Amino acid sequence: MKKFIILWLSIWLYVIILTAGIILGCLACNWKIWDTGTKLYALATALLPMHVLEEWHFPGGFHTMYNLMKNSNSTDRYPMNQLSDMWTNFIGVIFGCFVLIIGVSPVFLIMQLFLCCAEIFGHFNGGIFVYKRFEKDGKKTIYNPGLFTTLFGYIPIAVGILVCLFTSYVPTMLETVIALLCSIILGGFSLSGIENICKDENTPFGYTWGSGYFSKYLK
Questions:
Q1: Whole-angstrom Cα distance, residue 43 to residue 27?
Q2: Which of 211, 199, 215 has its CA nearest to residue 64?
Q3: Rounded CA gap, 191 and 167, in Å?
Q4: Does residue 174 register a pLDDT over 80?
Q5: Does residue 219 carry a pLDDT above 80?
Q6: Could you tell me which residues come within 8 angstroms of residue 189 by beta carbon, excluding any fewer than 6 positions away?
Q7: CA angle, 86 as apex, 49 and 21 as ends, to 5°?
Q8: What pLDDT does 64 receive?
Q9: Is there a contact between 92 and 198 (Cβ–Cβ < 8 Å)?
Q10: What pLDDT is attached to residue 164?
Q11: What is the value of pTM for the model shown?
């Protein structure tokens, strides 16, 4: 099983990037057919793999910030490790594809807005944390891996979804309550739940390529 997991962790990013490419291809082919809500949902789903690429490799190092915020002494593996973060993001991509297949509704748009807002809050909060943490080491901005795709991806998409929810996808009160409950449950499971299942200070699935963006501040 361990060998299979290591193999999957070595290729899963390629799988979700390919998935993002397929989604964007479908979006282009159906541009005149899909409504604005569906287009925004497709863009948000395709954005997630790009967001993960920024967090993991270009420039990478999101795990370092996240684990520092958890007061970890093992920032390469605890509590976030490759396995837990893979599941968190893979669930998001799979769920997004499922919604695009069955059809976007106000409930799903609210859930996507919840995700966008969570990313926005998380990266700005993390950015302030690392700015204060590394200011003495020369850090001059709140940039952290994932902030670029948040600023130029999740924020515009969130604004677009808000417009849709007040125009073409106006939810009922019941739909709003259902969407918020589902967002909390799915978000809690895919982040905290998965993390609690996978966290292990002796995990063999630590990040083996260093601290990425934060390497210059950890010398």
A1: 8
A2: 211
A3: 31
A4: yes
A5: no
A6: none
A7: 25
A8: 98
A9: no
A10: 98
A11: 0.96
Which residue shows structure tokens 């060998």? Answer: 3
Q: What are phi and psi of 50, to 5 degrees?
A: -65, -40
- Distance CA(150)–CA(141), nearest Å, equals 15
Of the candidates 202, 170, 167, which has an alpha carbon nearest to the alpha carbon of residue 83?
202
Q: Which contacts qualify for 208-212: CB closer than 8 Å, 24 or more apart?
A: 208/76, 209/57, 209/60, 210/60, 210/61, 211/60, 211/61, 211/64, 211/75, 211/76, 212/56, 212/57, 212/59, 212/60, 212/61, 212/62, 212/64, 212/145
**pLDDT computed for residue 1 by the predictor:** 85
Closest among 76, 206, 61, 78 to 134, alpha carbons compared: 61
Give the model confidence (pLDDT) of 26-44 as tens digits: 999 999 999 999 999 999 9
**Which tokens hold the place of 35?**
């409504």
Cβ partners under 8 Å of residue 176, min gap 6: 106, 110
Specify the residue for token string 């059809």. Answer: 103
* Lookup: tokens for 88: 């968190």
Average pLDDT over residues 83-99: 98
Measuring CA to CA, which residue among 106, 120, 216, 85 is closest to residue 172?
A: 106
Q: In sequence order, what are the residues at sequence separation of 6 or more whose Cβ sits closer than 8 angstroms to the Cβ of residue 133?
A: 68, 139
**What's the token pair of residue 160?**
């677009």
Percent of the chain residues past pLDDT 70, beyond the cut: 100
